[in-house]
TrEMBL record:
InterPro entries: Bact_OuterMem_StrucFunc (IPR050330), OMP_bac (IPR006664), OmpA-like (IPR006665), OmpA-like_sf (IPR036737). This is OmpA family protein. The keyword Membrane applies. It is found in: Cell outer membrane. Residues 52-65 have a biased composition (Acidic residues). One of its GO terms (cellular component) is cell outer membrane. It comes from the Bacteria. Residues 33-48 have a biased composition (Low complexity). Transmembrane segments: none annotated. It comes from Sanguibacter inulinus. Keywords: Cell outer membrane, Membrane, Signal. Residues 298-419 form the OmpA-like domain.
Length: 419
């Protein structure tokens, strides 16, 4: 099959909040997320912080006495020489397609607008009222077992997925092999029963080919996964990321160009720096069985902001580039009149547990302070979860690093309970 379109997080039309479940795939061992990845921009390494306008020195004496990485321009939110991972491909949880449950999620999506690294999705809660981590999307990676386990440990067995469901007045018939078709308005879902399928709405188009490969296209760009460790992300803002599957890769955003040779060295705008090989892109799994389209009830809305869209690498200091996103978000929250906001900071598992816990607390508080400064009068509750609530695996089944999964886990989430 040929690569066609790629996927981004469903917005607006996705209404009912659903459990985000890890999609198990017949040939995939790892997971990827569908959340839009913030377009990287040139910034300076967090520690130490050189002037980003300074040109790297070409004086041989300077090369002998200065660590190149300490004075090299970096991609925002990443260490010098590090190439951001190609985003994980995800699909909205099919149980969220009931438009009657969109409500606040649709409203806040329209008011906030489209910003890199910011996603809005319905949320689902467990019986105690606790929001399930990662709710709102399905990661198209797994082991093909037919049992879907979310990264927060929640497990759902959909059996053979057969039956008939009514979604927003439309009858959906699915067969014993999980195949079926749903179409209503802008949303269409087709599962061919062999692990392949397609999803499309007004903003997202996705194809899963069942052999580990697939594509997704939305307003942020196109993700192509070749299923062999290689892949490409072509951003609508000009950012391109290429993973050749052999440890080498290429990144470019118009200001920063990084070439990784896969042998321990990368060049950043021509300046060599030490760099680990680029981990391979995990193969995709199978398309979700149509049985997962049966609606469940939403308990609120989750607004997620990636760390790279807000903070410099390893810090809780808000980047100047985050100002516009926070301005728009604060205005939207004020207009909707949400009475309570629960703000949670999350990290990946890199660094020690104590550092991650403190960083998550500081980042949650930084976002809360920024919203208050912008006139948000809702009651704000901040919590740091450290590395305890991942939404994506950070390693593949064979133990390899999964940087795209770690990227999804580094985030600040704002949960708006139904009101």
């Amino acid at each position: 099959m040929t690569s066609t379109t790629v996927l981004t997080t469903l917005r607006g039309t996705c209404a009912a909040l659903a459990l985000a479940v890890l999609l198990t795939g017949c040939q995939a061992d790892s997971d990827r997320t569908a959340t839009p990845v913030p377009a990287a921009s040139a910034t300076t390494a967090a520690a130490p912080t050189p002037d980003p306008t300074d040109e790297p020195s070409t004086d041989p004496a300077d090369d002998q006495t200065t660590d190149p990485a300490s004075s090299t321009t970096a991609v925002a939110g990443y260490a010098p020489g590090e190439i951001p991972p190609i985003p994980l491909i995800t699909i909205p949880d099919l149980s969220m397609l009931d438009a009657s449950l969109s409500g606040f999620t649709h409203e806040i999506t329209e008011l906030v607008g489209d910003y890199p690294g910011l996603t809005v999705a319905p949320a689902s809660c467990d019986v105690s009222g606790t929001v399930r981590s990662g709710a709102g999307s399905i990661l198209l990676y797994g082991d093909g077992s037919g049992v879907y386990t979310g990264p927060d440990g929640t497990t759902v067995n959909y059996g053979d997925g057969s039956g008939t469901y009514v979604v927003d007045g439309v009858s959906v018939t699915v067969y014993g092999d999980g195949s079926g078709v749903f179409a209503s308005g802008d949303v269409s879902v087709s599962n061919y029963g062999d692990g392949s399928g397609v999803y499309a709405d007004a903003e997202v188009s996705l194809a899963v080919y069942g052999d580990g490969s697939g594509t997704r296209t939305d307003s942020t760009g196109t993700i192509t996964n070749y299923g062999d460790g290689g892949g490409v992300f072509a951003g609508a803002d000009g950012v391109t990321i290429t993973n050749y599957g052999d440890g080498s890769g290429l990144y470019s955003d118009g200001s920063v160009t990084i070439q990784n040779d896969g042998q321990g060295t990368a060049t950043v705008n021509g300046v060599p720096v030490p760099a680990d090989p680029v981990p391979p892109v995990p193969a995709m799994g199978v398309f979700p069985p149509m049985g997962t389209i049966e609606p469940i009830t939403s308990c609120g809305t989750t607004i997620s902001l990636s760390d790279a869209a807000l903070f410099d690498f390893g810090t809780s200091d808000l980047r100047p580039e985050s100002e516009q996103t926070l301005d728009s978000l604060a205005a939207a929250l004020a207009e909707t009149g949400a009475p309570t906001l629960q703000i949670g900071g999350h990290t990946d598992s890199i660094s020690d547990e104590a550092f991650n816990q403190q960083l998550s607390e500081d980042r949650a508080q930084a976002v809360a302070d920024a919203l208050v400064e912008r006139g948000v009068t809702a009651t704000l509750e901040t919590t740091g979860y450290g590395e305890t609530r991942p939404v994506a695996p950070e390693t593949t089944a064979d133990g390899s690093d999964n940087p795209a999964g770690r990227q999804l886990n580094r985030r600040v989430e704002i949960f708006v309970p139904t009101f």
